[in-house]
Amino acid sequence: MASQIMIPAFSELVRVFTRIGCLSFGGPAGQIALMHRELVEERKWINEDQYLHGLNFCHLLPGPEAQQLATWIGWRLHGVKGGLVAGLLFVIPGALIILALSILYAYAANLEWFAALFLGMKAAVLAIVVQALIRIGGRALNTRFKQAMSVAAFVALFFFNLPFPLIVLGAGLIGIATAQLRPEYLALKAGNAAPVATARPWGKTMQTVALWLAIWAAPMVIVLLTVGQDHVLWKIGSFFSQLAIVTFGGAYAVLAYMAQEAVQGFGWLSAGEMADGLGLAETTPGPLIMVTQFVGFLAAFRAPDPFTPLLAGIIGAGLTTWVTFAPCFLWIFAFAPWIERLENAHWLKGGLATLTAAVVGVIANLTMWFALHLLFASVSEQNFGPVRLYSPDPMSFNWQAALLSLLAAALIFRLKWSVIKTLVATSLGGLVLGWVV
Predict the structure, then answer these.
(1) What is the distance, to the nearest Å, from the Cα of residue 199 to the centroid of all Cα atoms in its chain?
(2) DSSP state of 195
(3) Which of 373, 364, 367 has its CA nearest to residue 392?
(4) End-to-end alpha carbon distance in the chain
(5) Residue 29 lies in a domain
(6) Count of alpha carbons within 13 angstroms of residue 90, beta-carbon side
(7) Is the C-alpha dihedral spanning 285, 26, 32, 241 positive or negative?
(8) Best label site of 72, 128, 162, 315, fewest CB within 10 Å?
(9) Structural domain that includes position 374
(10) What is the number of domains present in the chain?
(11) Measuring CA to CA, how many Å separate 199 from each of 106, 119, 251?
(12) What is the pTM for the complete model shown?
């Protein structure tokens, strides 16, 4: 009941969200469950309906939904300053840990024990991505039409190498049209049909959008004026700004696109290093999309002029984090006043439902990409007109990676181990195999 809601003091909000930020392991599902226990069940700062209302709203936005939910709850309790504190504290602990691990990785990557450790971590990542594929697919593909959209997205990415933003845009437009013409294909849940009586806050929204666009662009202006558009920092900022706009469906949905561009397009890191970064992000608190910071650090670390490698890497990591998460605050502060209207937008629900189905195909593409590059040291590409096929070299098969992947699958699917325990077990297994070999 509304009478049971307790508005906390601002200092209490800071303390609780600091705790949440340090304990937010387990990906979005675990993070959303943690906030529900802390804020709804134990402290009663918002009620169940408000929490689900906010969560549904955040699912409509690009970016990490758990971080945006934290921002929305902070905004609801203490306005913009509450949203800023809650959103930042959800990100900062994990960002600092990822930065420290990225520095360690950059300086220790050539050590044999380090490579063995990360081989086990990459094997666990493959099993984790497969688990995400099964979970999301089981929830999202509840009609034949959605299953067909998922298969179409996989084929478009894996065999035709179509751009990820095109997949996002196309799926959204198809969903909007389908919601109007054949809504039964999407099995949409009925929303609150009651009219919204509040005025449309156009002026406030435009002011908020203008302010946060300026905040979002500020570091890019500094990069442009100091090192120019040819520098790796400009490329990092531009790429991850674009990525922040199309990150519907969670981190796994964009990892394949990011990996493809960072590895094959820009050459910032290898496929194996991309998997290493995901393993680091899985073991740290905060949003999984924080793996972008690892990529930004290595990209700048390896092309540092006129800075030292360490300083360039830190700047690259900070710039990546800024352009990845500044838009999250823009979406929340601009659109939170519209939440009830967005909840009743039938066309928007249709676009999101079809987009979520396509995301399953995107994650399947990521799974195949990771598996090929983990299990085979040499993977080439062959083009037959518009069709792109991967061709692994059988002689480069990595039996150690295959064995560790089977171990990770057994721990996750048979023994139901958590992500953290599985990562630790397979990493130790990698060390043992490395020592034996």
Answers:
(1) 34
(2) P
(3) 373
(4) 63
(5) no
(6) 30
(7) positive
(8) 162
(9) 95-436
(10) 1
(11) 53, 56, 35
(12) 0.81
